[in-house]
Structures are given as C-alpha cells and as structure tokens.
Amino acid sequence: MENSAVLEKHVFTGKCSENLSSVEDAIYVIGGKWKLKIIIVLQENGNIRFNELQRAINGISARVLSNELKDLELNGFVKRVVHAEQTPVVVEYISTDYSRTLKPVIMSLSEWGRTHKRKLKEDF
Description:
The structure is a single chain. Helices cover 69% and strands 11% of the residues. The chain is built from 6 helices and 3 strands. It has helices at 2-30, 35-45, 50-56, 62-74, 97-100, 103-123; strands at residues 48-49, 78-83, 90-95. The chain has a 3-stranded antiparallel beta sheet with strand order 1-3-2.
C-alpha cells in the first residue's frame, strides 16, 4: 500500500513538473506585453501593413513592433509577405494557421479576464 502511494506521488510530481515545463515554454514564446496583442490583431484583421498594425496596438513603438514581429515569425505565428511588384514595395503581415491554434487559448483568457474584472468590481 505504501509503495502505491509513493508511486502515485511520483507520477503526480512528474506530471506537475511536465505541466510547469510546458506552460513555461508557452509563456516564453507568447509572453510579454505585446505578442498576444499582435496575434489577436492579425487574426482579426487578416493581412495588415506595419503602420496599420502599429496604430491598432496602442503604445507600441515601431522598434518594439518590428522586434516582436521577427520573434513571432521565427516561431511560426506570423508570415511576412512582400509585394515587390508594387511601387513602393508593400509589406504585409498575416497570421499563420499555426497562430490560429491559439484561438481557444485566447478566447479562454478573454473570458477569464472578463470574469476576473467582474469579480473585482463585486468585491469593491
């Protein structure tokens, strides 16, 4: 009986550690102040140019937006499309199919945020 409890605790601890590691990986990729905001705007707007994207996200500088877009592109969340045939050259950003796999996570976070805000208002 004791061995069973020890084994169960070991399995649970391993699962907890695995979950913590997975969440840490996810936060590393989409964490920070801007990445989820960029992903949400891209998902809602489709193809969008850099300046339009910057206007849609209050407070983000061009330099930070550029760096965040590069990170998101490296991780497969954003695709940069260059229309070189146009003058001047037009660059658009679009969310990838992989980025859209975050939709349920974003919707859950959004709902949780609304619930949390209501709870805080009720408590005060």
